[in-house]
Amino acid sequence: MLNKIAVIGGGAAGIITVDTLARCQDQSWEIVGFEGRAALGGVWSDIPGTRLDDPDIFGRLRTIATEIDGDLSAEQIFHQGSPVVDVRGHVKDINQLLPTSYDQPLKLNKTTMLRDGIFFSNKTGLHTDSRSSVPKGFMEFDPIPRRRTTSGDPVLYTWKEVRENINDYVSKNDIYKYYRMNTSIELIDKMSHNEWVVVAKRTDAAKNIEEWYLETFNAIVICSGYFQVPYIPFYMNKFTQHNPGIHNFNVTFPEVLVHTRDIDQWYHNVLPKLEAKDETHKILIVGSGMSCIDVLPKIAAMQKLNIIISKIPGTSESEQPIEWFNEWLSNNDRITLKSSILNFLNIKGHPAVQFTDGSIVDNISHIIFATGYMPSLPFLARNLASAIKVYVTSDKSTLNLACTGASRVTSLYVHTVSISDPTLGFVFNSQTPIFQSFHLSAQMLAGIWSRYNNLLKLPKVTKNPWSQILPSIEAQLEWARRRLKDTGNNSKFHCYNSVSVPKSSWLAECREFFYDPSIANHMLPTGFEMLIERSLKEIEETFRKVSQSGS
């Protein structure tokens, strides 16, 4: 029986999953949620303008003592410095954890780890002008959207509105009672047919104490999200045989490099100083996708900034998602478009970069990595990942076959269920934060797991109850092969946005497994085509308005 379920992550996906499982009235399973931060909400838990002195990504990477040659994996960042789990994802001494439990943990002095300020950061990329990138009707916590948007109302939520919606929903449904806050999952492994074991760490910052313990579960849902691990080219992968020198550059020129995850701090701590100076500054932005569209307007509004935009290494020139933005970039005489970075340079004591076309830009004030995020499962034990074949794919555009923002998660049926082990579920694999995608996966898991339990209650149980619930293994693999053929072996495999969800077969593929099939016909907002069109127009209008405000 599936009597105890762990839900890893307390963002929108985790909140929806916990609430969906809790609404299964014919099930008495225990639900335990784990969230590494002090508040639920994931990306939306941040409050722009606060915690401006918190550790930033490149500041943490500067603490690495040795030169990095493009081989720093998310797993190494996650585990480096851990007193219990090594960088290969193995428990150093299992005997010290065997007698532990939630009530009787192993207490250790708090350890400073490389990941502090990279994973579980209080800063999540939100800034004062942040808005949702999809219409309001696609960001509802109720599975059936009930809000109506009139013709004169904004279609996109402000960050404050999203945060208020989360807090209201969490309070109304008493979601915090299921969660253990400030608690990270350090390792997941499978001990027997129906028993998962997790290594958890509860941090008490006030007492400078870490509490480590083992706990077993019958099923696991990973809801840790696509926006957990910032993608940092050159640190995390190699594109050429030589070392581009990013780590030495980062150490030599502290505070020049910044990831958009930390843009709120940069807006408050750095941008006003640039504006106050008389001289012109050069700002290089790496990447021209949605992260660039998000952060560029405030920078473009300042007339004393010359802006260079370079490609993310390994990406296609044609991967720009919004046509009008391409046109805006090409027609703006303050924007210089460049190829990918080849080398990070120190020219007479000043930061500079060389591009793959051979050109060099010197005296750069700041380099902003608008490179997005990447999927990662650093807590999944390596032997387990190998056995069930659930892992993050390598990117063939990198010489060392590293994971990048173009990677995907393998061996899942309709992005939700491990094909090898249906007691491992995922509610996060849609790259665009459309809450309908979370509802699809959460309903599917609630449906198949409740049916499994109900089958086990029958007098005669078949040898493999899953065969009565899910399609055959071959049929599930065939679904993955078809999807792979349509999208390629990259992050597009999981990509469903507000435009593609209504047109895709994902809803039809999941609905037969729903715990509550009655909601399937009502999950899309009324007039979603109009909402999508209006949202794209609103994104463009807001971008142009803010970027021109300084002219």
Automatic annotation (TrEMBL):
Gene3D superfamilies linked: FAD/NAD(P)-binding domain (3.50.50.60)
Database matches in SUPFAM superfamilies: FAD/NAD(P)-binding domain (SSF51905)
Keyword Oxidoreductase: yes
Entry keyword set: FAD, Flavoprotein, Oxidoreductase
Highest taxon above the source species: Eukaryota
Protein name from the UniProt record: FAD/NAD(P)-binding domain-containing protein
GO molecular function list: flavin adenine dinucleotide binding; N,N-dimethylaniline monooxygenase activity; NADP binding
Pfam families, alphabetized: FMO-like
Recorded family membership: Belongs to the FMO family.
Claim: Flavoprotein is one of the keywords in the record: yes
InterPro entries: FAD/NAD-bd_sf, Flavin_mOase-like, FMO-like
